[in-house]
Specification:
The protein is built from 6 helices and 5 strands. It is an alpha+beta fold. The protein has 2 domains: 3-84, Orthogonal Bundle (Arc Repressor Mutant, subunit A); 91-139, Ferric-uptake regulator, C-terminal dimerisarion domain (Dna Ligase, domain 1, 2-Layer Sandwich). The strands form 2 sheets. It has a 3-stranded mixed sheet with strand order 4-3-5, with no helix packed on it. A two-stranded antiparallel sheet has the order 1-2. A hairpin with a 5-residue loop joins strand 3 and strand 4. The chain is globular, with a radius of gyration of 17 Å. One of its GO terms (molecular function) is zinc ion binding. Belongs to the Fur family. Keywords: Cytoplasm, DNA-binding, Iron, Manganese, Metal-binding, Repressor, Transcription, Transcription regulation, Zinc. InterPro entries: FUR, Fur_C, WH-like_DNA-bd_sf, WH_DNA-bd_sf.
Length: 141
Amino acid sequence: MTTRVQNALDQLKINGVRITPQRHAILSFLMESMGHPTADEIYRALEPRFPSMSVATVYNNLKMFLEAGMVRELTYGDNSSRFDADVSDHYHVICETCGKIKDFSYEPLTEVERKAEESTGFQVFGHRMEFYGVCDDCRNP
C-alpha cells in the first residue's frame, strides 16, 4: 500500500469514518489510477474482488471522498463524471477521439483569478481549464 493511500485512510479514521474493505479498495484504485475513471469503471474493476458490492456503494463512497476533499469530480459534458484523486492544482488534456484524460502540470493561474475578481467584483474561488486534442494512441493506431 502506498504512503498516499495510508495517509488518506488515516485521515478518514481521524474523522470517524469506518474503513471497510470496499472503501479501502475504491480509494486505492482511485489513487493508483492515472486514467481518471468513472464510477462504473471503478465498479467494473473491483467487482471481481467484491461480487456483493453495488454501483451505489461506489457512488456513495465517491460522494464521501468528494466531501472530504480527497478526490475531485471532473465533468466534461459527456454525462459521465470522472474522478481524480490528485487534488493538487493541475490541468487536464483530453483526447477528443477516445476521451482519455491526462494530467498537465503548470503553475496555477492565480493572477488570472485576481484579474477576474478585479474586473467583475466577484470573489473567485478557483477555475478550471482543460485542453483538447488527439492522443498518441488515436493518432497512430
